[in-house]
Amino acid sequence: MAKAVATTDEKSTAVAAANTSAQVPAFMQANRTNKAKIGNTDSSDLIIPRVKLLQKISPEVDDHPGVAVEGQFWHTIAEQSLGSELRFVPLLINKSTVLWAPRGDDRGILARSSDNVNWDQGSENQEFEIQLKGQPKRKIYTRSSVAESGLAEFGSTVPGDKRSAPLASLTYTFLMVLLDFPELSPVAVINTRSAIRPAKLLQSKIDLRPAQHYGQVFKMFKTDEVGDEGPYNGYGYLADGYVSDEDQYHEFEAMYRHYSEGVAWRVNDDADEAPVSEGGPTGERPTGEKSSKY
What we know:
Blueprint: H1 8-21, E1 47-48, E2 51-53, H2 59-63, E3 73-75, E4 80-81, E5 85-100, E6 109-113, E7 127-130, E8 138-141, H3 146-149, E9 168-178, E10 187-192, H4 196-208, E11 216-227, E12 230-242, H5 246-260, E13 266-267
Parallel strand pairs: 1-13
Antiparallel strand pairs: 2-3, 3-4, 5-6, 5-9, 5-11, 7-8, 9-10, 11-12
C-alpha cells in the first residue's frame, strides 16, 4: 500500500490537532500528587514514555501516515507528534551499554549493562544468533562482563574489519520534563551511536551553567546529518535560559529527587531507531566508566 505524503500545512495541522486533544479541561486538572489512585500499583509498574526523533525508516511513519512525520519528535505512549523542536528541563542522565538486535530483527534489546562493566542479571553469559545485512548468520556471546565479551569494541560488527562499529553501544538516557507538554512528562530520550557526541555536549553545557540542572532550560531540535547509509536526522541541543517560576522550579526539584532516590522506573526502549546495521553511522565505544546520574 502506498504511503501517504503529508504537505507542510497538513503536518502543522496534525501537530496542532494532537496538541489540542491532549489538553485537559480546567475543571478536571490535577497534579501528580493529588490524582486519585487507580489501583494497588506503584511507580515500579509504570513505563516512562520515550520521545524519539523519527527517521525515514521509523515504523511509526508507516503506522501513522500524516501524523507521525519523519524529522519530528514522537511521543511513544501518547502516539503523538510533538514537532521538530522541544523545550525541556533535564532531570536525570543514565549511561549504559546496550546490545541491540540488528535492524529488522524484532527482538529489540538483547542485553544491557547498567554500569558499563558487567552485564545485568539475565544478560550475562548469553548466546545470541544474529545476522547483519550482507553477512552470514553467526553467534555472539555476552560472557560475564562487557570487556570479556568484546561486543563493545570496534571491529565487532564486521569480523576482520577493525574499523567497523561496536555491536554493543554506549547509550545515554535522559529523563526530562517537556515545558510545552507538561501533561506528557516526564519522558525519556535515548541517545546512542551517532547521537553520543551531542549527548556529551549537552552534559557539558549542563555542567558549565551556574544553576541546578533541574532549573536549566534547553532546546532539543533536529539536525541534518549524513552517514555511510545516507542522510539521517540527528539530535541538537542548545541552552535556552532558566526556569523563571519558583513554584515550577521546586516542582522539578521534587521530580528529580523522586526519580533519583531509589524509585524504580523503566523506559519504553524495547525498540530504537538506531539498532546496529553494517555501514551505518556510529558513535563512540564505551570506556568501562561507572554509570553517571544527575
